[in-house]
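About this split. The held-out portion is used to measure sequence recovery: a designer receives only the structure tokens and must propose an amino acid at every position. Recovery is the fraction of positions where the proposal matches the reference. Here is one held-out target exactly as it appears in the evaluation file.
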């Protein structure tokens, strides 16, 4: 009787599939795509193992080996856990996950955001590297603390078109730490984006020790990389720290984008090589800074310990190719300890080739050049304002419609200058090699020279709105022009001079009085002292 009861129970349970898991076939079968895998799973006896040749078509990169599991160990999705009638098929995870595992190959137009997000999530869950393949299109991919420590490559992907008036990127990091992400020629699709400075390619909010072995971008409308602590001034993720970018580049075909790298807040960043082409421009009437912009939104946002290797900036077109725009309170700065390694810049048609303002302890080694771009004031060269602790070397040529830059409210300066071909060719009394405002505790060495075809007003011009104290000029001011061209070596427009020393000035082919201009009370080194003269600003 017991046997009969047992047999009856088996028959009943055979009719009720919920009593027992459906047995799977033992042999591995081969199907062409994921749709065929789902069809195989609807069979009364699903195959135990299925070799899928592609996601949509054989050979498209989205295939793999799938194993049947009647209880499905994960949440069904489009790539790892493929739902069937009962249970699911589970993809065998290899050495890498890509978005081809979650969708058909991208066409460069269709939004692939869901597949891309799923790829990053799977990389975090299964602890394997991931790949976002070329022509993938996405926006607002969100990486969080769940993604700490992942290693992924984004290869020739594209930012989806749209999303104006919102500080967001195609790829967004929220408090992510320890991840390694390689970005290869990410296309921001600049010409098809809204005319907005906020259409970024990558944003980083908070987090620590992110590493980008490669971060290269093309055609970005907003910033290639925007680094801050908060998105749209809402939740704060804390100040990012320990960011490392080995190789960065951003290139546009025209100068109507924003910045290459914007740092709003952060500490202990290391940049290897940085290259920008046609970065910066004017967006909705706003002149954008350009390649590298260190610009806290407020004094509470601290930018400290930034180290750059070689920076190459070509054809910057905005307000400045290289920029620090900090804040100061009671003599304390919110930008400190910045080392610009070796900067090479070419500029044309810009307001500034570069500018540093309100920062402490800056090292700058700069070679900048530009062509004449118009009338007096059209190109203000490289401007430096309110820096406490400036060291390095500046060499410029052809910043020739106005001046190298105003060294204003600058303290503790040790610079070597090599300024050539400045001035404005079509008119006299225009342009200076070095214009200073308030300058203290400074030692300036090097050369300032201009060809005889130009007639700038002075090699060094104190503009009258500050004071020079404890300043030593060891400059060779050279000008082959002869008597009638009104060039001065040094000219003072009324600012007080205290403990100013002029050493070894060689005003070539220029009478001593004109060489010294009107620096009343200055100590003369190896030149005989001249009677203080008078002059007025042009």
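Reference sequence for scoring:
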């Amino acid at each position: 009787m017991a046997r009969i009861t047992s047999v009856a129970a088996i028959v009943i349970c055979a009719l009720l599939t919920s009593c027992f898991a459906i047995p799977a076939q033992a042999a591995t079968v081969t199907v062409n795509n994921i749709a065929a895998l789902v069809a195989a799973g609807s069979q009364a006896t699903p195959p135990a193992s299925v070799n899928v040749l592609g996601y949509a078509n054989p050979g498209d990169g989205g295939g793999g080996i799938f194993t049947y599991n009647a209880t499905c160990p994960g949440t069904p999705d489009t790539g790892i856990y493929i739902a069937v009638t009962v249970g699911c098929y589970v993809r065998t995870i290899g050495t890498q996950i890509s978005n081809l595992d979650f969708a058909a190959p991208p066409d460069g137009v269709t939004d692939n955001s869901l597949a891309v997000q799923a790829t990053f999530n799977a990389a975090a869950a299964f602890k394997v590297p991931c790949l976002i393949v070329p022509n993938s299109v996405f926006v607002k991919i969100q990486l969080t603390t769940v993604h700490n420590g992942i290693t992924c490559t984004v290869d020739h992907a594209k930012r989806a078109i749209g999303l104006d008036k919102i500080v967001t990127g195609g790829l967004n990091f929220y408090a992510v730490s320890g991840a390694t992400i390689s970005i290869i020629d990410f296309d921001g699709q600049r010409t098809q984006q809204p005319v907005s400075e906020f259409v970024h390619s990558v944003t980083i909010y908070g987090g620590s020790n992110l590493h980008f072995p490669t971060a290269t971008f093309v055609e970005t409308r907003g910033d290639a990389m925007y680094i801050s602590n908060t998105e749209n001034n809402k939740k704060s993720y804390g100040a990012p720290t320990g960011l490392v970018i080995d190789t960065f580049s951003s290139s546009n075909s025209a100068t109507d984008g924003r910045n290459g790298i914007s740092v709003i807040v952060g500490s202990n960043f290391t940049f290897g090589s940085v290259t920008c082409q046609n970065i910066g421009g004017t967006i909705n009437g706003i002149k954008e800074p350009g390649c590298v912009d260190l610009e806290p939104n407020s004094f509470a946002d601290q930018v400290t310990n930034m180290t750059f290797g070689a920076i190459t900036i070509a054809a910057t077109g905005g307000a400045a190719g290289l920029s620090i725009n900090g804040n100061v309170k009671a003599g304390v700065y919110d930008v400190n300890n910045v080392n610009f390694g070796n900067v090479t810049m070419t500029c044309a048609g810009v307001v500034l080739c570069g500018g540093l303002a309100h920062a402490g302890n800056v090292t700058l080694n700069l070679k900048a050049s530009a062509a004449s771009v118009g009338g007096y004031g059209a190109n203000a060269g490289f401007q430096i304002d309110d820096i406490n602790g400036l060291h390095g070397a500046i060499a410029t040529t052809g910043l020739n419609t106005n001046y190298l830059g105003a060294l204003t409210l600058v303290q503790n300066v040790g610079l070597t200058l090599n300024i050539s071909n400045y001035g404005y060719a079509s008119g006299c009394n225009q342009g200076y090699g070095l214009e200073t405002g308030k300058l203290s505790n400074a030692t300036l060495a090097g050369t300032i020279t201009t060809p005889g075809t130009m007639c700038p007003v002075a090699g060094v011009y104190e503009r009258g709105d500050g004071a020079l104290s404890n300043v030593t000029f060891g400059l060779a001011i050279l000008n082959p022009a002869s008597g009638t061209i009104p060039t001065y070596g040094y000219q003072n427009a009324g600012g007080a001079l205290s403990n100013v020393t002029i050493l070894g000035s060689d005003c070539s082919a220029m009478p001593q009085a004109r060489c010294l201009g009107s620096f009343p009370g200055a100590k003369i080194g190896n030149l005989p002292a001249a009677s203080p003269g008078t002059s007025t600003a042009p």
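Annotator remark: Residues 62 and 100 are 5 Å apart (CA to CA).
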